[in-house]
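ok new one. same drill as before - structure tokens go in, u give me an amino acid for every spot. 68 of them this time. try not to just spam alanines like last time pls lmao
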């Protein structure tokens, strides 16, 4: 079973990232401690996360000392 977009959003939110809505199903996540870093997630909460989305979220979380 693959990770869902909803789990990635929850992990980002818990780590202090703030969501900004984008077009359609896109959301942009920013963290005040990481200026210039944006994570864009495309897809609805129940969709399977793509490998690049998981990787991007994991890298961002590592930068602030968290894990997925």
């Amino acid at each position: 079973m693959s990770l869902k977009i909803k789990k990635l959003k929850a992990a980002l939110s818990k780590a202090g990232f703030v969501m900004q809505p984008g077009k359609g199903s896109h959301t942009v996540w920013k963290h005040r401690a990481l200026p210039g870093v944006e994570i864009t997630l495309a897809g609805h909460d129940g969709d399977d996360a793509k490998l690049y989305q998981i990787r991007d979220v994991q890298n961002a979380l590592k930068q602030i000392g968290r894990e997925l």
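The longest helix spans residues 51-63. and btw The radius of gyration is 11 Å.
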